[in-house]
Two-component response regulator ARR22
Amino acid sequence: MSSSASSSKGKRKLNAVKKLSVLIVANDDISQNSYILCLQKFGVETLGVKNGFMAFNIHDKTQMRFDLILMGSTMPIMDGIEATKKLRSMGITTMIVGITTPDDNEEYRKKIMEVGLDECYEKPLTKDILQSLVEKISNKV
């Protein structure tokens, strides 16, 4: 076996080992915990925060980056619209998926999409939706 063949095999192994990471931004503990548990079953590393300000600070103050951000809509301190705007203005290109509530009207959903979401779903996110999102980001990594 040539050294280039063994080197490319090693690279493939390294790429296969990289775990996907998801930031879950939601002030609803029950939803956040259920998303974390489900994503961890798919082998994804997760971090949950309570509001958009915390999500912004993680990106602004640390070198942490995520493969996917699940962004709640209504949260204290900084909501999903403001947090998404700030993240996009920082140059964050990570896939951001909005999670709206049944009470959010169509105008709000349109506004949140316009600030830079890639997709938007009404909560609760199902296992199938989460699995689909993980598959999408897996193909990009």
